[in-house]
Amino acid sequence: MKRLTIFIIVTLGMILLFNMILYSSNNVSPPVNVKSGDDFNFYIISDPHYIAENTHDNGEAFNNLLEFGDKMLQYSNVFIDAIKESVIVNKPDFIVFTGDLTINGLKENHIEFSKKLSEFVKLGTCVYVIPGNHDISNEEAVFYYEDKLLKGNNVDKNKFVEIYYDFGYNQSISRDEDSLSYLVMATEDVWLLMIDSTNDYPDHGGSLSSSTLQWIESCSELAKEKNSKMIAVMHHSLIDHSKIISDNYTIENNEEILKCFIKSDIEIVLTGHIHLQDIKEYNIDDHIIYDIATSSLSVYPHQFGTMHYSPYKGYNYHTVKLDMTQYAIDNGLNDEFLIEFDSNSEQFFKDKCCSSQRNCINNIEELNEREKEEVIKVVSEMNKLFFAGYRNEYLEYLKDFEGFKLLESISTCPVKNYALAILNDERANNNIISIPISD
Ligand SMILES: [Fe+2]
Predict the structure, then answer these.
(1) Can you give the residue range of the structural domain that contains 392?
(2) pLDDT, tens digit (0-9, with 9 covering 90-100), for 51-61
(3) How far apart are CA 215 and CA 378, in angstroms?
(4) Rounded distance from Cα 97 to ligand 1 centre (Å)
(5) How many CA atoms lie less than 13 Å away from 56 in the CB half-sphere?
(6) Are 101 and 206 within one domain?
(7) Rounded to the nearest whole angstrom, what is the distance from the C-alpha of residue 237 to the centroid of ligand 1?
(8) Is residue 244 part of a domain?
(9) What's the CA-to-centroid distance between 99 and ligand 1, angstroms?
(10) Ligand 1: distance of its center to the CA of 437 in Å?
């Protein structure tokens, strides 16, 4: 009996030692839940811009923040809670966050957000994050108190990794020395290349260094050795998502990166940052790269992406709009705004997001006040559909509106160019795409 006990203790000790050696090695990956040949599902959440409730008092300074943006920050925590309910029901294998995790990079916001992510992990879902331009060394990391902005602590790169260690960095099989990028074996068949595309604050733009590009190619070699594919995830756009807005949104050296991705057999890139729901593709010499930009969770229509992978078939992406009314009812929340969320959030978006366009339209001398209101009405409707991922024929019905005819009749102005570009885009519905497996 005594010999058996010693044998069990020694065996357990050896298993423990073996595991310690295994995970301390950079070449061996931790166990994955999804085996080769299995289907899997995951969520893609972009730009949640989380703000912790204990960092503001709903006072004047916080209301100013809401007034001059399109983000519904007062509910950023509730949106994450609503996603948690969806995770309980749908059990995605993992969730990726494409950056701009917080509104202003304040340490308290990161810490509270990471606590929310721990709740997902407790449900059995892996979480993988990368930073966005709002998250690191942000000099606008403040608390909002009465009418004041009180400076707080931001987080640097090391602190970011420390706070989010359990959400990707702990599972990385390789890390880039030049950025916070890392590689994870999320499933045996498909690995995630989590790319930190941020430039140093206050630059909102992004880029990848030549050393990071070399690292990506080395990751591709690792994946090829195991017959695995890689999906890339990064904050900035790889391909222009708008003919009008691309500066600081599309990554600076995208031509070089496209070449690197083609060489590395990367076909899908999941991005955020631009807050538009939009899918663009780059096609060269039989290689296609899809850049799927998921719209910001904190901005109308408050949706996230889901991806289903089937071996031998491919990927099916579609968006899911949060049902905040149902969430409020299920959780007994006595909040009038949430109970009528669809109409309230639509109005909030039209009021806030269209304010710069409203200013521009108000300056058109060819129109009288009533006509200006008609144009504003049609442009805010187009803008709403554009952000939600709809273009071309989905907006065709608006051509019969008086405001649209007036817009067509005026001499060239930025709002006219913006609105007409929405009617002439690559893809009509950017909320859904099927991508077959390539050889
Ligand atoms: Fe961003």
Answers:
(1) 354-422
(2) 999 999 999 99
(3) 48
(4) 12
(5) 27
(6) yes
(7) 10
(8) yes
(9) 7
(10) 30
For residue 286, the CA-to-ligand 1 centroid distance in Å is 31
Q: How many CB atoms lie within 10 A of CB 63?
A: 14
Question: Is the pLDDT at 361 greater than 50, yes or no?
Answer: yes
Determine the distance separating the centroid of ligand 1 and the alpha carbon of 65, expressed in angstroms: 16
| Dist. CA 334 → ligand 1 center (Å) | 32
In terms of residues, how long is the chain? 439
The Å distance, Cα 333 to ligand 1 centre, comes to 31
Note whether residue 33 is domain-resident. Answer: yes
**Residue 331 forms part of a structural domain:** no
Residue 428 lies in a domain: no
C-alpha of residue 204 to centroid of ligand 1, in Å = 7
354, 380 contact by CB (below 8 A): yes
Residue 403 to residues 156, 361, 385, 416: CA-CA distances in angstroms? 48, 11, 16, 11
pLDDT band at 32 (very low <50, low <70, confident <90, very high): low
Q: How does pLDDT run across 398-434, given as a tens digit for each residue?
A: 999 999 999 999 887 888 888 888 999 999 999 999 9
Amino acid identity, position 273: H
pLDDT digits (tens, 9 = 90+) for 306-333: 999 999 899 999 999 999 999 999 999 9
- 33-53 pLDDT, tens digit per residue, is 799 999 999 999 999 999 999
pTM higher than 0.85, yes or no?
A: yes
Total domains in the fold of the chain: 2
Cα–ligand 1 centroid distance for 102 (angstroms): 10
Q: What is the pLDDT of residues 224-253, one digit of tens each?
A: 999 999 999 999 999 999 877 777 899 999
Residue 122 Cα, ligand 1 centroid: separation in angstroms? 28
Distance 96 CA to ligand 1 centre (A): 15
Distances (CA, A) of 282 to 116, 229, 252, 269, 290: 36, 18, 16, 11, 7
Cα 197 to ligand 1 centre (Å): 10
- The residue assigned the tokens 């909102």 is 204
Same domain, 45 and 146: yes
Q: What is the Å distance from ligand 1's center to 212 Cα?
A: 20
